Amino acid sequence: MKPERLHDPRIAVIGGGTGLSTMLRGLKKLSQNITAIVTVADDGGGSGMLREDLGMPPPGDVRNCIQALANTEPIMEKLLAYRFTDGRLKGQSFGNLFLAALNGMSDTFDEAVRRMSDVLAITGRVLPVTNENVYLAAEFDDGTEAVGESHIAEFKKGSDKRIRRVRLIPERPPALPEALEAINGADMIVLGPGSLYTSIMPNLVTEGVAEAITHSDAFKIYVLNVMTQDGETESYTASDHIEALFSNSGAHLFDWCLANSMDIPSEIAGRYRAEGAQPVEIDDEEVYKLGVGILRAPVASWASGYVRHDPDRLSAELLRLYHEKSHTRVYM
């Protein structure tokens, strides 16, 4: 066993999308030893345009994480987030273009990410999970398949079919060696929060990642989404989320799951319900059957009108649980 690092544990976080970058904004206040391992399977929006035009990995999720960990003046933060409103660049963010330019100057995408991280003096590190040009495919329980992250939710909407399996094209691309090293050296590994199939899962079906997590003796925890997601996880319970992660990765990835304990205001919950989403039901007994312990904490926020994890409360709770539970396992 690695000795416990009481004050500043080495933290590897794995995922993508808004959920991961939101959490990173809180974590950077509590630890200098953060490595974010980020999916590169996006093919929609501004990232998809740059991917198609320049043949580079999609920059969006990586750029969001770099921004979250950056230590910059407010004007630079606004500049990176700025989206053009007219012309051929309409909808494209300056941050994506910045990373695209660095990619053109670099031999590999991870080198471009490192250069952008250095320019913005980020806390910790951001790593693409792979340098390979990958696309996400989802196989459904009725035998159909959707290819491309941006097409999966739309393909599923309006039906009761479930995603049975996701894979990358090409399958099992090699993980970035530095990403595997970060997992192997971590004291705490955090999966999520983020879209189950399109933000977290692409990392786990990258060659070597699930195996490295399984063999690690770190404190391993999954941050459960507060709400289900239309087009991915309608009607999913906590155990459905966990079972999907285990079955797709082929591994028992973690012993603990952190769930929100706060009630969502009826007005906001009603709006989500009209859009096909609802608070994730915590089915404790089914979760325990999977060998996972449920931990509850008030980590949600809806100040913006949207239900999100509160970055400060979530990060503080994760560090508290690390110190309290890092040597405790769940037994069947």
Question: What does it look like?
Answer:
The chain has 332 residues and is α/β, with parallel strands linked by helices. The protein has 2 domains: 1-39 and 175-325, 3-Layer(aba) Sandwich (Rossmann fold), CATH 3.40.50.10680; 41-128, no CATH class. The chain has helices at residues 17-27, 45-54, 60-69, 74-81, 94-105, 109-119, 149-156, 177-184, 196-204, 209-215, 238-249, 266-274, 284-289, 311-325; strands spanning 11-15, 34-38, 125-128, 135-140, 145-147, 163-169, 188-191, 219-223, 256-260, 293-297, 300-301, 308-309. Strand 1 (11-15), helix 1 (17-27) and strand 2 form a beta-alpha-beta unit. The longest helix has 15 residues, at 311-325. Residues 1-6 have low confidence and may be disordered.
Features:
332 residues, 7-stranded parallel sheet, Rossmann fold, alpha/beta
Write a concise synopsis of the structure shown:
Strand 1, helix 1 (17-27) and strand 2 form a beta-alpha-beta unit. The longest helix is centred in the C-terminal third of the chain and has 15 residues, at 311-325. The protein is of the alpha/beta class and 332 residues long.
Chain-wise SSE layout:
Blueprint: E1 11-15, H1 17-27, E2 34-38, H2 45-54, H3 60-69, H4 74-81, H5 94-105, H6 109-119, E3 125-128, E4 135-140, E5 145-147, H7 149-156, E6 163-169, H8 177-184, E7 188-191, H9 196-204, H10 209-215, E8 219-223, H11 238-249, E9 256-260, H12 266-274, H13 284-289, E10 293-297, E11 300-301, E12 308-309, H14 311-325
Q: Taking all residues together, what is the mean pLDDT?
A: 93
Main sheet: strands, sense, barrel: 7 strands, parallel
- CATH architecture annotation name of the largest domain: 3-Layer(aba) Sandwich
Shape: globular
How many runs of DSSP E, i.e. beta strands?
12
User: Structural class given helices, strands, pairing?
Assistant: alpha/beta
* End-to-end separation: 22 Å
SSE order, as H and E? EHEHHHHHEEEHEHEHHEHEHHEEEH
